[in-house]
Amino acid sequence: MAALAVLVIGCLPAPRAQAVANGDVYIEAGSLTFNPGIPLAGGSVRIQAKVCSMDYFNITEGFFVGTDQIGTRQTQVFGPESPCWFFALDHVFSEAGEYPVTVKITSTDPVDSDTSNNEETRTLTVDIDTDRDGIGNSVDPDDDNDGLTDSEEADIGTDPLKQDTDGDGIYDGWEYRHGLDPLSAADKSLDPDADGLVNNQEALQGTDPHSADTDRDGMPDGWEVRYDLSPLNGNDAVRDADQDGLSNLEEFQKGIDPRNSDTDGDGAADGADAYPLDNKETADTDGDGMGNNADTDDDNDGLPDTKEKELGTDPLKSDTDGDGINDAIEISLGLDPLDPSDAGIDSDYDGLSNLAEIQAGTDPTKSDTDDDGLPDRYEIDHGLNPLDSSDAALDTDGDGLSNLDEYAQGTDPNKADTDGDSVGDQEDDFPLDPLWQLDADNDGLPDAWELEHGLDLTRDDAEEDLDSDGLINKREFELGTDPAVADTDRDGAGDGFEVRYGYDPLDPADGVADHDGDGLTNAQEFQKNTDPTKRDTDGDGFHDGVDEFPLDASEHLDSDQDGMPDNFETKYGFLLSDPVDTFLDADGDGLLNVEEYEAGTDPTIRDTDSDNLTDREEIAGGTDPAKADTDGDGISDGRDTSPLDPKSGRPVEWWLYAGAVGVLFVALGGSLVYLRRTERLRRIDIGG
């Protein structure tokens, strides 16, 4: 025990020369007090008592523990002016326990006549504070502040006055709360969560020994501690401690140092280094796991880097021109790896661009990759597999037609009734037209349509041209024109003419249009048989609108408007100012002069081609009056029994002409053949 100080509290009057001994000196009952009431061992406690006297006295007082005085005795002068004084002492009790503390008046001057009230004793309880938390053990629920209450420690068997009962460096409470044994020091070096921190390290860091990643940031606690990161702060996963372009989490995942921006020391920051642990490699362009320095095909496009340099392609880009097609594939297909436009080309004409074929996995040089009869584009458009030939024979929509049959007739392999007319594609003769279903004669023309337009339901008349407009009946059906009317839209231009030149035979506006700007409407071009898309059909330098002979490159003018061009009349000695000569027959062969022009014969010679038949006779017989051997069989028309058939003609053996009746007699073996001027050869059997 040690006394700190003795304090006398009160007012000190001036001393007197004489004393009056008649008054009583006493310690006021109950005035002995302690502050704090229960001090802690090693802590200071103030002990004080109240001493009173109603007369003049010099009083000496002292404090005792048992019989041992603590502190020093103090003397004080009392008198009526200051009848009571507090004597106080600050004292430290080094050990806990129960202490009898006494305050005594040890002497007075003059002598006190009554000493019965000159002493008072009280017991002072001094508590211990094991964990130095300022709370004595007697009232502290956890005397050692190890995280377990004293009652829990009693149940567990640990020492409530020792924070680390087993001496393994880990508080008992932490061990118990984390499923470890606070009575066994062996578990301090265990690592149950395999995070690289043993249990006493986990306790030191405040991490969970049963969770490898306490803050759930993707980085193990041990790794974070090793690199001075916080295993209790999940936010440091996204931070970049070394400013190398990689987050701390990425550094962990790559196995590199988050505190060193260039882990392998090759001069490339880890964030830009594909091989941050290999100082011989920094890049892996194609991501194949082989660094560019060792890789012979850096972009993995199938072309060695050396070959790319020869070709001028980029060895670090698998698609140099950025058209979506790998350089090597372009080379193999004969495309240009430096020209992005060829990706849009359809090399095999199957309706898919080269790029689309590459993306679909089909062969861009083969319109039907799987050789099943279905073009790749058709299969893709209809949900079939262009790489599986077996689907051609399937009947996807269950209409009785295989997918190949559907393709052949243009129907949808996914719809049993393509045209939606309630007649299945197999039974429907016109599966693409909801208006028609039956075709009794199988000529491709619907029965109802044939009836409507006067065609025959019992025979194939699809290839005939009922209205002689240049369009067969089947084509008229396809176009929607009338097979019985040569000019369906009645614009003055025949249907066939309009179709031939790209006009709409159902649009009457086409007839009055002049698309070639030659001064003739399309209807007029039709009437003249000129080309409505060419200003100068015969190419003679005079556009059709002013050319009186737009189909004859040698003529363009008819001064007397007699139907014979000026050049023709001049050539054969006719008058350019006389329209009457068009009706004359200058050579007497039965053809008018104008007919000779139209036939291309000489109007001054009866037999232009000198084949012994007049021009008129040739026209009547169907031979060419300007060609001596029409059928080219080596026999001139005048001597050929069949001048229009190169395989069956024979030359005549003799002939006799009866001019009076205009008959030519020819002997052919046992037959007599005669020819009138206006008739073809006829045969009369004369026997033998």
Overview of this protein structure:
By secondary structure, the protein is of the alpha+beta class. Among the domains are: 125 residues, Immunoglobulin-like; 57 residues. The protein contains 18 helices and 13 strands. The strands form three sheets. Strands 1, 2, 3, 4 and 7 form a five-stranded antiparallel sheet that branches. A hairpin with an 8-residue loop joins strand 3 and strand 4. The N terminus and C terminus are likely disordered.
What would the keywords be for this entry?
Immunoglobulin-like; four-stranded antiparallel sheet; disordered C terminus; about 700 residues; alpha+beta; about 15% helix; rod-shaped
Summarize the structure.
By secondary structure, the chain is an alpha+beta fold. Helix content is 17%, strand content 14%.
List the helices and strands and how they pair.
Blueprint: E1 2-9, E2 25-27, E3 33-35, E4 44-53, E5 57-65, E6 68-78, E7 84-92, E8 97-109, E9 119-126, H1 150-156, H2 172-177, H3 199-205, H4 221-226, H5 248-254, H6 305-311, H7 327-332, H8 354-360, H9 376-381, H10 403-409, H11 447-452, H12 473-479, H13 495-500, H14 509-512, H15 522-528, H16 566-571, H17 593-599, H18 615-621, E10 654-658, E11 663-668, E12 671-676, E13 682-685
Please indicate the percent range of residues in DSSP E strands (runs of 2 or more).
Answer: 5-15%
The pLDDT mean sits at: 86
Radius of gyration, taken over Cα atoms and rounded to an integer in Å: 65 Å
Characterize the quaternary organization of these chains: single chain
CATH homology superfamily name of one domain = Immunoglobulins
Number of helices: 18
InterPro entries: Ca-binding_acidic-repeat (IPR053180), EF_Hand_1_Ca_BS (IPR018247), TSP3_bac (IPR059100), TSP_type-3_rpt (IPR028974)
Organism: Candidatus Wirthbacteria bacterium CG2_30_54_11
Pfam family, one: TSP3_bac
Subcellular location: Secreted
